[in-house]
Amino acid sequence: xxxxxxxxxxxxxxxxxxxxxxxxxxxxxxxxxxxxxxxxxxxxxxxxxxxxxxxxxxxxxxxxxxxxxxxxxxxxxxxxxxxxxxxxxxxxxxxxxxxxxxxxxxxxxxxxxxxxxxxxxxxxxxxxxxxxxxxxxxxxxxxxxxxxxxxxxxxxxxxxxxxxxxxxxxxxxxxxxxxxxxxxxxxxxxxxxxxxxxxxx
Length: 201
Fold this sequence. Notes:
Elements: E1 3-7, H1 8-12, E2 23-26, E3 41-42, H2 50-65, H3 71-78, H4 81-91, H5 94-104, E4 109-113, H6 122-134, E5 138-139, E6 158-160, H7 161-167, H8 175-182, E7 187-189, E8 195-196
Parallel strand pairs: 1-4, 1-5, 2-3, 2-4
Antiparallel strand pairs: 6-7, 7-8
Helix pairs in contact: 2-3, 4-6, 5-6
């Protein structure tokens, strides 16, 4: 089976559709009352620890106030988010992580949190840790193009250009992405910025 990852807006607005037998787990620190309508359960043990999350949000807010072009990247690097989260999830939350990994061996599991762009999101790291334990292939980002494998990089990250422009505002400024967007592609891979026409994917 496999582990897939998405964000609440895509899930609640039907831009992704988990299979009938898939399990959908939120992995957030502060769940909302309406979670029960869109996920099977929230596994808060796999969310970032409170001190790490608070530090990240504090630095991100300060970077935004300072006019940084990518506050999330500044915060991610400043608080050493990746290393700290991986250490947490493989030590303090190791038992829960192993249980979810065992579940992935039986069925497809979706990991859901808030961030549309998973470059600076713990769900990408979590999916990677599960993949290492199971040997399954994870799909880090899911948009309306979920399930479309990129023939260029072989990641399941191809989404419509409209979705790409809406979600990946900063990535759209990258030279490779700009070239694809200006050439009138219908779809673009959010992993490698390859572009495709309507029937090509």
